[in-house]
């Protein structure tokens, strides 16, 4: 069994290659049990989680811890490892750093969904959030759409500026062809920006809506990633009601995501109104966006299938599979 650290994993990855590989994996037959997120204490957000999945060639399980108050001590809120086993004989193949791979696969999965849900001419991206995942969202969307402008919003302007510096200094940005590179700037107010935005991606730990859904323009695509709690949400009910709603996994989203659970509790949205899962988009069971004017929404809480797909890509690049 090999041990792949963050640096070794990154050297094996390209965003476009990962997105294309994930699309193929999502079209194939795989088994994805419901992920288990277990609070460590009653009333606490500290948690331990397990995400298993397997295909015809590979078995993976990701274990991660979530300690949201760690930032107060300058520590990471998430820690993660992924184990990979040979599906044919059960032998362990690799132990991978789960943190960096999660950043990559989360951004790639959102971009993969957006390839079916965002307008083909979408060129202006708004990133709400300044955490570690934020820069990856810019690279992922630039891999599937002609992004020309990236706007970054955060409650802390200094962190927003640091996010911009990270985006522009990264090898991921520098390796983009000149025609695919984009301008980046900080914005002070989300609502006043929505009139000029094609894609909104939210990667925050917010417990309340980040913007007024009535201000979304026809044709906008909304991507919600940050919230995994039943009583929190990054968008308001208006956003959900106005949108065609898609998810990474119904069973997981409906167990965890207040973004949809709160409107359901209010009687303003129903589980049956979810249009499709990402696997159905990739297999073309659902054709995705229906018109230029349609507002689309993609809610993800993290699927073990995304981990499986990312691990398959890395191990293939390393010639282990």
How would you describe the overall organization of this protein?
One of its GO terms (biological process) is carboxylic acid metabolic process. GO terms for molecular function: ornithine cyclodeaminase activity; oxidoreductase activity. Its EC number is 4.3.1.12. It holds the Pfam family OCD_Mu_crystall. This protein is α/β, with parallel strands linked by helices and 321 residues long. The strands form two sheets. Strands 9-8-7-10-11-14-12-13 form an eight-stranded parallel beta sheet. The chain contains eleven helices and 14 strands. It is globular.
In short:
By secondary structure, this protein is α/β, with parallel strands linked by helices. It folds into two domains: 2-101 and 305-317, ornithine cyclodeaminase, domain 1; 110-302, Rossmann fold, CATH 3.40.50.720. The protein has eleven helices and 14 strands.
**Lateral arrangement of strands in the main beta sheet:** 9-8-7-10-11-14-12-13
Radius of gyration using CA atoms only: 19 Å
The ordered H/E elements are: EHHEEEEEHEHEHHEEEHEHHEHEH
Task: Tell me the overall shape.
Answer: globular
Tell me the total number of β-strands.
14
The CATH C-level name of the largest domain is: Alpha Beta
SS-derived structural category = alpha/beta
What is the CATH topology of the largest domain? Answer: Rossmann fold
**What is the architecture of the largest domain at the second tier of CATH?**
3-Layer(aba) Sandwich
Q: How confident is the prediction overall: mean pLDDT?
A: 94
The percent range for strand residues is: 15-25%
Number of domains: 2
Q: How far is it from the N-terminal to the C-terminal residue, by CA?
A: 12 Å
Which regions contain 5 or more consecutive residues with pLDDT less than 50? none
Superfamily (CATH H level) name of the largest domain: NAD(P)-binding Rossmann-like Domain
Count the DSSP helices.
11
Largest sheet: 8 strands, parallel
Helix content: 25-40%
